[in-house]
Amino acid sequence: MTYIILDLEWNQPISYQSRTYREVGDKLIFEMIQIGAVKLDAELNPADSVSIPIAPTHYLRIHPRIKRMTGLDSETLAGAPNFREALEQFAGWCGEDYALLTWGIDDVSVLYQNIRFFHCEDIALAPLYDIQKLFSQVHKLKDRAGLKTAMELTEIEPDENMAFHNALNDAWYTALVFKTLPEPDAVLNFPQEPKELIHTRRVAREKTPGEIFDSVREALESESAIHPTCPRCGRVLTMDGEYIKQSADKYIAVARCKNHGRILIRLRFRIDDDGKKIMTRTTAPATNANVAYVHTKQLQMRERQAKYLQEHGSLPDPDEELLNAEVSSMPFD
Predict the structure, then answer these.
(1) CB proximity list for 43: less than 8 A, separation 6 or greater
(2) Do residues 267 and 322 make contact, with C-beta atoms less than 8 angstroms apart?
(3) What's the whole-number mean pLDDT along residues 12-25?
(4) How far apart, in whole angstroms, are the C-alpha atoms of residue 291 and residue 85?
(5) CA distance linking residue 178 with residue 33, whole number of Å
(6) Terminal CA-to-CA distance of the chain, rounded, Å?
(7) Does the structure show a pLDDT above 70 at 97?
């Protein structure tokens, strides 16, 4: 059996209030725009590869963040095959007696949402398996590792001519990581099933419109961040410690309302076309688990910051981290 490493890139709505999204709804949250794959030989070395661009038919304008990360734009994809043609080309290239391997669970869910939406169930693909889960188990990682982190752990240097967030390049890097695993065939113990993707959250919460700032630090020190209001009564909350960084684009904290107890606050950042930082704030009642998690992470953050300051003299620039962030938050049901 041949192993094929698969990676995908996809576009998303510019706005969830757009006419196109209102028409297709959660049936097509992400529209695929590139298939990249690497076929491995018996020694798990890359033996063949394919990169197939896909012309979008619904989200015609490429989201600025997707364009920045992938380098793909509407002009580049204009003459590309549509989804069915691309999937047929890919299935033909795969051949017979193979297994598809991906890094994590995002790709399989987006792939099968596109297959269902474009009515391509008649194009047969082999089962998919999760390399990321096997890697995390082998390296005894508490959380799933990103591809860049996995490469660092296995001392694989990226090629300066192969940028991340290109489907073929990421598939190639994933193949190199896969070969380092002591028992790579164990990946077959981690089959994948697509999850339903949704946009609408079914939890009562309050979300503010995006606010524009020159920097992440300015946003974190803004009135909106340090004096949030209760989503139930509108009372100004008392912060219960500082914000902790979950990732380059996500920060979280807990605050208190005299009427409604602890409130969970989430800040989300993105960069607009002018380089400005757009912050949205979401507030919702906090569970005991939320509170315990945030307090633990606050203690860990202080320890890490103290150690980092001692070694480097200054903390990392949050704007630089945001610019280079791997943003892959998937809206699973």
Answers:
(1) none
(2) no
(3) 83
(4) 49
(5) 25
(6) 33
(7) yes
In angstroms, the CA 108 to CA 144 distance is 16
Quick check: 324 and 248 in contact, CB under 8 A? yes
| Dist CA 228 CA 311 (whole Å) | 34
Query: What letter represents residue 91's amino acid?
Result: A
Q: What is the pLDDT of residue 16?
A: 74
**Taking phi first (over 0 means left), then psi (-120 to 50 degrees means alpha), and beta for anything else, what does residue 95 get?**
left
Q: Print the SS3 string covering 150-177.
A: HHHHCCCCCCCCCCCCCHHHHHHHHHHH
Strand stretches in 103-219, DSSP E: 128-130, 206-207, 211-213
Query: Which DSSP symbol is given to 315?
Result: -
Among 253, 134, 120, 113, CA closest to 185: 134
Look at the chain and count its residues. 333
CA distances from 75 to 80, 87, 111 (A): 10, 21, 23
CA atoms within a 13 Å half-sphere pointing along the CA-CB vector of 310 = 6
| Chain CA centroid to CA 291, Å | 25
Look at the block and give the residue holding tokens 């059996």. 1
Task: Answer yes or no: are the C-beta atoms of 253 and 240 closer than 8 Å.
Answer: yes
Q: Which two tokens stand for residue 121?
A: 């169930």
* Residue found by looking up tokens 């980092």 in the block: 308
The span from the CA of 135 to the CA of 190, in Å, is 11
**38-63 pLDDT, tens per residue?**
999 999 999 999 999 999 999 999 99
Percent of the chain with pLDDT over 70: 95
State the Cα–Cα distance between residues 153 and 114, nearest whole angstrom: 33
- Of 318, 333, 40, nearest in space to 179 by CA: 40
DSSP states along 245-261: EEETTEEEEEEEETTTE
Q: Across the strands, what pairs with 31?
A: 11
- Stated pTM of the model: 0.64
Nearest Cα to Cα of residue 222 among 264, 263, 261, 265: 265
